[in-house]
Amino acid sequence: MTALAREIERATGRGVRVLIIDSGVDDQHPALRQVSVSHYAARADLLGACAVHPDVCGDASGHGTAVAAIIASYAPNVALTSLRIFGEGNRATSEFLLAALDWGITQGFDVINASFGTTYLALLARFKARVDSAFVNGSVIVSASHNFDVRVVEFPAHFPTVVSVEAAELPPLAIERVPKRLVEFRAAGINLRTAWRDGGWAVMSGSSFAAPHVAALVARIKEVRPNWNAAQVKSGLYELCPP
Q1: What is the CA 196 to chain-centroid distance, rounded?
Q2: Which of 118, 178, 193, 240 is the most exposed place for a label (fewest CB within 10 A)?
Q3: What is the CATH number of domain 3-240?
Q4: Where are the domains of the chain?
C-alpha cells in the first residue's frame, strides 16, 4: 500500500466542499439525516437567462438523493451542496448545465459531481471553456460516462482533465483503470441498493452511480492533498488502481 493510499484510508473528506449537480437532494432521507446539505437550483428568468438561486430541500426524481447518499457514505465529513437542474423525468436544458458549472467553479467547490453528459457537439466549445476554467481554478469535475458504450463521445466525460467513470461490478471505493480510453476509471455501479426520494430505496445500475463513489475518493484525496489539481488527483487515483 502506498503512502497516499494509507492517508486516503483514514480520510473522511473533512474540509472538502462537494457540489452535486443533479435533480436535488432529499436530505430528510434516513441515509442523509446526519449530513448537512445546502440547496440551490438553476432557474431561467423571463428573458431566458439562467441563474442559480437558493432552493428548498427536495428531489424531483430521486437520482440526486442517491448520488448524495453514496458520497456521504464514503466521505461522511464533506460539505455537500445540491444544485438542482433536472426536473421530472430527469430533463434539463444545456443552458442550465452550463450555468451550473459556471456557478460551481466561481464558488470554488473542490469537487463537482456531474451525473450527466451530452453528445451535442455544437456545445463542445462552451463546455470545454467551463472544464478548462475548473482545471485552472482547482475544481475537480467527476463525470459519469455513457451508460451503454463508453466509446461514444460524450462530454464532459471525454475531456482529459475530467475524472470520467463507467459502471462495473466492484466493491465500494474499489476502482479500476480503463486502458487507452478517455473514460479512464471503473467503479461500483451495477445493481446498487441506493437511497431514493420520499425516504425510499431502489436498486439501480449506471455510471451516474459509479461517479459518486469516485467523487468520494477524490474528496478524500483533496482532504490530504488540498492543493492538487485535476491532473494530480487523477495520478493519485491511478495509484489506487490494481496493476
Answers
A1: 17
A2: 193
A3: 3.40.50.200
A4: 3-240
